[in-house]
């Protein structure tokens, strides 16, 4: 299966929840047509947002150009403009990924505006906002509003640690970037140490993991291990054409040796 369409555990969970809601309403409503139409719309909206979220994460991990990243913006803008409680988690997540895009494309005003909107939605959600999403929000508040990259690192890592999908590498990718921005090369390794311990035998099945692990090992001076891990990553489907960072990791490890 192409990794562009790789379905993560978090997406599956979202689809199951929405599908159960759909079935419940289907059999419970006496005047069905208007309500069923609403639920169908809700289901389609959540699928659109989920797809946009996964596409954005893929674009970041694969180092695709900003044209691919920017596709999250209209989806997020539409979602936050008319938020629905039943899909609020995805709405807030899409909004935060739009903030990420704006930050990296140097559109600071738009990024801060979207961040403010997401903060409001998160406040209104209260306890309905799970820790992995609130941690993601805190991460962007720290790096964008306060310029505190080390604190942002901790929040990105916590977002991965508490998230529903242990193979979601996006928060760890951002954690590694924050570590570099605050000059903490040791944290570049720490960001991937736990997932490497858990999933080190699966480097050939989890897209983009090998390159991130290799880069972390390089940062602590273990260049031979960095080379070995990077080369192992080429066994992953599509890596030779889709994982630019893997090439980068191999070159770095060989250069420093």
Summarize the structure.
By secondary structure, this protein is mainly α. The chain has helices spanning 9-28, 32-61, 66-69, 72-81, 88-104, 108-125, 131-145, 149-162, 170-181, 185-199, 209-219, 223-233, 239-242, 244-256.
Description:
- Keywords: Repeat, TPR repeat.
- InterPro entries: TTC38 (IPR033891).
- It is built from 14 helices and no strands.
- The chain is mostly helical.
- The model is unreliable at 1-7, 15-19 and 21-36 (pLDDT under 50).
What is the gyration radius calculated from CA atoms? 19 Å
Mean pLDDT: 85
Largest sheet: none
Shape: globular
Give the fraction of residues assigned to helices: over 70%
Query: Using DSSP, what is the number of strands?
Result: 0
Order of SSEs: HHHHHHHHHHHHHH
Structural class: mainly alpha
**N- to C-terminal separation?**
36 Å
Q: How much strand content do the residues show?
A: under 5%
Count of helical stretches:
14
* Uncertain parts: 1-7, 15-19, 21-36
Task: Break the fold down into its secondary structure elements and pairings.
Layout: H1 9-28, H2 32-61, H3 66-69, H4 72-81, H5 88-104, H6 108-125, H7 131-145, H8 149-162, H9 170-181, H10 185-199, H11 209-219, H12 223-233, H13 239-242, H14 244-256
Name the descriptors.
mainly alpha; 257 residues
